[in-house]
Amino acid sequence: MRPLIRLLLTALVPLLLAGCSTVHSFFFEELDRQEMRISVDAAFFHGPNPPTASDQQEMLELCLGKRRPGNLDGFRISEAAIICASRGSLERSDELFSLAVQRSSDMDRRRIMLNQIIQWHRQGSGIRDQDLSPVLTDLSHTRALQLVEELQNRKQDYLVDRIYSFMIPRSSGVALADVLLQKGLYEYSMGRSSLAVAALQKTLELREDYEAHLILGRIYHEARDYDRASLHLEKAYASKKEPETAFLLARLEFSRKNSAVALDWIKKADEKNARVVELHGLILLSLDAGANPEPLLSSIGYSDSNPVCLQENRPFLENLELCSVSNVYRLLSPIRGRARIMRSWFGTTNPWNRKATVPYGKRQY
Fold first, then answer.
1. Exposure of 280 by Cβ count < 10 A (0-12 exposed, 13-18 middle, 19+ buried)?
2. CA gyration radius for the chain?
3. pLDDT for res 358
4. CB–CB of 277/296 below 8 Å?
5. pTM over the 0.85 mark
6. Interacting residues of 180 by C-beta distance below 8 A, sequence separation 6+
7. CA 46 from chain center: how many Å?
8. In terms of pLDDT, which residue wins out, 350 or 167?
9. 226-253, pLDDT tens digit by residue?
10. Helices marked H in the chain — which ranges?
């Protein structure tokens, strides 16, 4: 019996070891693939051509020291540094970031510096002024704000806040007004209205600005501070007679129940816009519950352009199918929009019986 067991063990052990080796290799190869995917993370800055699978393998080998940088550009070396950091090789990552910075120039050099700062923040490090100084030194405020906008698009909100905190005390005059304006717009987009108001008010102390008045008008309207909202929106319209501003003023006066004034403003807005048509109808009904705003619907059309329908790298049949669906949707969209507006006006899409619609128009039902 013992010789038989020994024979079985002799035959099975190599097989088990080979199987374990295969599992071991597969596990680490999959781990490498997962770590290499960070090289295309949209939170970082990249070159014009995203790395392919073979590029990612080369960057991993560069991180591991199995190949030389050769003629790789700054962004490729930066992506290798990001892979290194994700593997925990922070010293090697810093070495590659330094090399990437040396091989880059102008704005790309600063974007790679920001990649390193983003990576530091991911590792739990704080962002100090001395980290930001090399990025922003000797850079005009307009180009610095361009970098900030690119960071906003990458959802690097903590870094954006730190850069604004770095730039504001170091700016003055026109540059300070530009920085405060962009910060105000950013804070408003983030839903931080109090910070947006503070930044935009300081902008207006330095110079008059259409966008600052417009956003302040929106914020004060949302807060139901109608007097301040009216003040800023009227100043915005005085500086630039935009249809959108006229619409906001009409909506404001309608909220204040000044329907006659709202009617004057809505006539200056874009009559092809569905929101304008809907508000125009509501204003007419508030002035006269028996009014018929349906003729306003005829001004709503559909766009004849479809720029994203056809794509060169897409098969012909797929292009044909997607374009057909897109065109049908564009034709049906105004119809759905009209139906929604009718329900907003009358509570139904078939307001043939005016006796049923008048109470809804008066909001008495």
1. buried
2. 31
3. 43
4. yes
5. no
6. 168, 199, 200, 202, 203, 206
7. 17
8. 167
9. 999 999 999 999 999 999 999 999 999 9
10. 2-36, 53-64, 74-86, 90-102, 106-122, 129-136, 141-153, 157-167, 173-189, 193-206, 210-222, 226-239, 243-255, 259-266, 274-287, 316-346, 354-361
